[in-house]
Amino acid sequence: MAECPPACQTVWSAFVQMALSRPPGMGFAGIPASEIEAWQRIHRVALTAWEVDMIHELDKVAAKVAANDKKGGSHDDS
């Protein structure tokens, strides 16, 4: 797996922290905008619109991986 470039560390770190805070339940729940807003307040960080968009994009990928895992599929590392 490739390392995260330094320019993406803020977005990746924020995404991982928010993703780890997902409540366990009956299926994959995306990270809502309200959670991103709360994360920013708690951490006293102002993410840019681009950074928020990237968190949502990472979340979409995470949802696809979770769905694939649930079906017993494999991951494509390309």
The helix/strand order is HHH
Protein structure class: mainly alpha
Count of extended strands: 0
Distance between the termini: 10 Å
Reported for the largest beta sheet, the result is: none
* Percent of residues in helices: 55-70%
Assess the beta-strand content as a share of residues: under 5%
Low-confidence stretches: none
**Count of helical stretches:** 3
Q: Over the alpha carbons, how many angstroms does the gyration radius reach? A: 13 Å
Mean pLDDT: 85
Rough outline = globular
Structure report:
By secondary structure, the chain is mainly alpha-helical. The protein is built from three helices and no strands. It has helices at 9-20, 33-43, 49-71. Helix 1 crosses helix 3. The longest helix is centred in the C-terminal third of the chain and has 23 residues, at 49-71. The mean pLDDT is 85.
Entry summary:
59% of the residues lie in helices and 0% in strands. With 78 residues, the protein is mainly alpha-helical.
For the structure shown, list the relevant keywords.
single chain; globular; mainly alpha; 78 residues; 3 helices
Strand and helix layout:
Layout: H1 9-20, H2 33-43, H3 49-71
Helix pairs in contact: 1-3
